[in-house]
Amino acid sequence: MPFRTSIGRRHSSAGLFAAIAATGILVSLPPSVCSATAKDECVDAHSRGQDARTKGLLTRARQLFLACAQSSCPTLIQGDCARFGEDIERLLPTVSFVARDSRAVDLPNTSVYVDETLVTARLDDGKTFELDPGKHVVRFVHDGKETTMKVVLNQGEKGRVLSAIFASTTTSAIPATSSTSSSAPSTPPAPPA
């Protein structure tokens, strides 16, 4: 019996079974049991996704809806999950993190924790992160120092930048310009008349 793969090629069942036997993989469950298990998993992900959405756990709900939007799920559930996933995509707040010293120099080797969970260990990739709406505690850690902030993210808020400023470790001032003229006398300008 011929079948099509996801890339559209036609294969015979005998070829498939030969490939499975050649790799040493044996499937002991009949196809009807496998599809029933997949269907149950899809229904479960659909249900748990809706529960997570109701509780405001949008990142978890989105993961669940992505799982039940797969082609292996029944068409009705697949359509629901795809639509719910798109809705949550619009609601999920996104943030980016910035850490700088007091001279506004970027500090890329800064770790960021949100609600005590490490979100990123470096800030030099320019990524944005999806977080659930609501209250969060954000902790920036750089070179043994840390700074913490509390934020409230709103549904649909996109591209918010959360910044941390760390005190400079050096006390010497950096001149605003690096070019100086050695031939010009260093006299102060005359006051205006």
Order of helices and strands: EEHHHHEEEEEEE
Oligomer: single chain
What are the low-pLDDT stretches, counting only 5+ consecutive residues below 50?
Answer: 1-34, 171-189
Number of E strands: 9
**Secondary-structure content class:** alpha+beta
Mean pLDDT: 77
Beta-sheet strand percentage? 25-35%
- Work out the helicity level: 25-40%
Rg: 28 Å
* Biggest sheet descriptor: 4 strands, antiparallel
State the helix count.
Answer: 4
**Intertermini distance:** 100 Å
Record the strand order, biggest sheet: 5-4-7-8
Identify the overall geometry: elongated
Q: How would you explain this protein's 3D organization?
A:
With 193 residues, the chain is α+β, with helices and mostly antiparallel strands. It has helices spanning 13-23, 31-54, 58-68, 75-91, and strands at 2-4, 10-12, 94-101, 111-114, 117-120, 129-130, 134-142, 145-153, 160-166.
Which tags fit this structure?
single chain, alpha+beta, four-stranded antiparallel sheet, three-stranded mixed sheet, disordered N terminus
Write the layout of secondary structure elements.
Elements: E1 2-4, E2 10-12, H1 13-23, H2 31-54, H3 58-68, H4 75-91, E3 94-101, E4 111-114, E5 117-120, E6 129-130, E7 134-142, E8 145-153, E9 160-166
Parallel strand pairs: 3-9
Antiparallel strand pairs: 1-2, 3-6, 4-5, 4-7, 7-8
Helix pairs in contact: 2-3, 2-4, 3-4
Structure, briefly:
The protein has 193 residues and is an alpha+beta fold. Helices cover 33% and strands 25% of the residues. The protein has helices at residues 13-23, 31-54, 58-68, 75-91, and strands at 2-4, 10-12, 94-101, 111-114, 117-120, 129-130, 134-142, 145-153, 160-166.
